[in-house]
Write a structure and sequence with these properties.
Blueprint (H helix, E strand, L loop, with lengths): L5 H10 L1 H27 L2 H11 L1 H6 L2 H7 L4 H12 L7
Helix pairs in contact: 1-2, 5-6
Length: 95
């Protein structure tokens, strides 16, 4: 993982227009991702969340431990596992 100090970021942003443009594009991308995550947490039931993540953000399911995903979706890991299997056969499990 790379990082940059705030002072260096500010310097690059003010002195190099290309850097400022790239920074704004990345910021917009991450705002979109954050907004999508916020909508998931607010508006969807756990099974709908899993289906949405499976469709829109499958890389999360590959990179993040199933226990943490289950916690994020407000279900226990065993329920998540059953629902993963059920989603493959298009029959979601409710509990």
């Amino acid at each position: 993982m790379y990082f940059i100090a705030k002072e260096d970021y500010e310097y690059l942003k003010w002195h190099y227009g290309e850097f400022a443009y790239i920074a704004s594009v990345l910021l917009e991308k991450y705002i979109d991702i954050f907004s999508e995550h916020a909508m998931l947490n607010r508006d969807q039931k756990p099974l709908e969340k899993y289906g949405h993540v499976l469709e829109k953000m499958p890389q999360l399911l590959q990179r993040i431990d199933a226990k943490k995903i289950a916690t994020w979706m407000n279900m226990d890991p065993a329920t998540l596992s059953r629902n993963k299997k059920a989603m493959k056969s298009k029959k979601p499990v409710m509990s």
